[in-house]
Structure formats: structure tokens, C-alpha cells
Amino acid sequence: MRQHKHPKIEEIDLIDIMYALSDPTRVEIVMTLAGKGRAMTCGELLIDRPKSSMSHHFKILRGAGLVETLIKGTEHINSLRLKELEERFPGVMKAVLKAFRAGMADG
Amino acid sequence: MRQHKHPKIEEIDLIDIMYALSDPTRVEIVMTLAGKGRAMTCGELLIDRPKSSMSHHFKILRGAGLVETLIKGTEHINSLRLKELEERFPGVMKAVLKAFRAGMADG
């Protein structure tokens, strides 16, 4: 089955991660995946945006190295690459996710 | 003397910080200020970009709450708001600066 391309962990640029996290929809996707703590299909994410917009955001999230999407049949199964990111940029995603979570609790 | 406007620390949005850090010139400014560990005038920064481009980048850095610029006479004195940012988003800037520093050492 044809799969999406993902950057290798050593190719990931922190600037691209910052850009990926500079949009509310993408942050919502990342926070939903982080909150569930497991891989999710696009349908499960229940984020109310047009499909084309979601495709665009997932493309940026994959390109930045934040999300991995595996295609199984008709399903796209998405997960955060947190373990690899922690190795490459220690503490970054942990602190960022925590801060976004705190912000969501405030709002 | 007329001064720049800066957001209050409680108005700062992490999404804007992420966006501010998604550009190589802005990261260079932030890393230079972090490396020196003190306020610096625009002249001292020695970043070789057109003045208009630097103004644009500083505007984004100020708007995001990353940088404070004080005007003294003809000088613009810039500093990172690290202490305030640490209170608002614990650990975020520390991890991000460390990761960017490691990346600069690699490259």
C-alpha cells in the first residue's frame, strides 16, 4: 500500500516544528492526539474543518516531523512522533504540550 | 520618549511565540540575545539583513512577547523576556533555546 513520506528524525528542523505549531487547527490536532495518547484515524479526531483544510494541516504536521500517518486500507492512522522528538529535542515537546494544555484549561 | 508597545505577559499566546520562532532570522536574533545574556542595541546584533527586514522581524518578536525594545535617544535596546516567559510557559524557552543551540553546534 502506498504510504506517506515522513522525514527521518535527524532531518527534522526545529524551525519547521515551530511553524507547524503556529496555527490553531494544527495545535488542536496535536493536542487531541497527545490527549488520547494513541494513534487516531482522521475521523476519530472530530475536528470540524473542511477535508481539504485538514489534508493541508496534516501535510505540514508530517513534513515538520510531528505526525506520522500510516495508511491502512481506507483509513489514515495518525500518531505523534513524541518519542523520537524527545530524543532529538529533549524537553521541547513536553514543555510545549504542557503549556498549550494549561492555556486550554485557562480558556 | 515614545516607546514601543509590548503585550502584557498574561496576553502572550504560545501560538504567536511558535510563529515568531519559525523564521531563521528571528531565531538568529533570539539566539544572539540569549547567547550574550544581556540587552543589546540593534547595531550590536550584527545580523546582516536590510534594516526594513530587521524592523519587521523585531515587530513580530515584540508582538509575540519574546523581545522587549526600549528606546533611549537614538538607540533601540533589545532584550529577551525570558524571566516572564518562564513564569508563563515553564520550561518552554529553556528547552527551545537549548535545542536551537545544539542545532547550531551541529551545523
UniProtKB/TrEMBL annotation, chains A, B:
Ranges of residues in domain HTH arsR-type: 6-100
Family annotation (SUPFAM superfamilies): Winged helix' DNA-binding domain
Pfam families, sorted: HTH_20
GO MF term set: DNA binding; DNA-binding transcription factor activity
Domain of life of the organism encoding this protein: Bacteria
Record has DNA-binding as a keyword: yes
UniProt-listed CDD domains: HTH_ARSR
PROSITE patterns given in the database record: HTH_ARSR_2 (PS50987)
Protein name: Helix-turn-helix transcriptional regulator
S-adenosyl-L-methionine recorded as keyword: no
Keywords: DNA-binding, Transcription, Transcription regulation
